[in-house]
Amino acid sequence: MHETAYEITTLTPQQPTPNPGMLPTEIPPGVQMVTLPGGVRTLAYTSAQAPPAPPVPVAQPIPTWAKTTALLTPTIGGGIAAAGIGLSYAAPGLIAMSQALWAAVALIAAAAIGVPMLLRIGRSAAGTGRGSTHITQNITASGMFGKANGTINHR
User: In this structure, are strands 41-45 and 31-35 parallel, antiparallel, or unpaired?
Assistant: First the structure.
């Protein structure tokens, strides 16, 4: 056998754990303080663990309200554009129509005033040969629930 210049000793659980003699800042990269299954702490090379892979995003279904909104947006925009174009073409006609409505209002107002005046003038011209008829009626009653009596006078 070979005789060695060093001796390998193992620690038993009753023996205190020796101080590694190095500060944590002095430990080189890839070396860590590890505790073996028997409770012994020692420096050891450790394999660098790759960071865990990020979770793969799962495709989420598009909500129904988003689909509906996406489909209605161009339709509503197109409708508003069509309405704007239609109003620009209809503007001269709308202006003429508003003026025609004001003319109709003026005609109705004139008719409301003029027709009764024409009727009054026509009655007075047709009845120039005879005077107008006056009817006078006198009614009298005695008591709250008494019988009423009246007279009619034609002139």
Answer: antiparallel
d(CA 78, CA 71): 12
**Backbone phi, then psi, for 126, in 5-degree steps?**
-75, -30
Q: What is the pLDDT of residues 40-92, one digit of tens each?
A: 888 887 776 677 888 888 888 999 999 999 999 999 999 999 999 998 998 99
- Please provide the distance, in angstroms rounded to a whole number, between the alpha carbons at the two ends of the chain: 168
pTM for this structure? Answer: 0.29
Q: Please report, for residues 55, 147, 153, the alpha-carbon distance to residue 142 in angstroms, rounded to integers and kept in the order given.
A: 108, 7, 21
Distances (CA, A) of 153 to 96, 134, 136: 59, 8, 5
Separation of alpha carbons 144 and 155, rounded Å: 32
How many CA atoms lie within 13 Å of 67's alpha carbon, on the beta-carbon side? 4
Amino acid (one-letter) located at 66: A
137 contacts 148 by C-beta, under 8 angstroms: no
Phi, psi of 71 (to 5 degrees): -80, -30
* Contact yes or no for 40/17 (Cβ under 8 A): yes
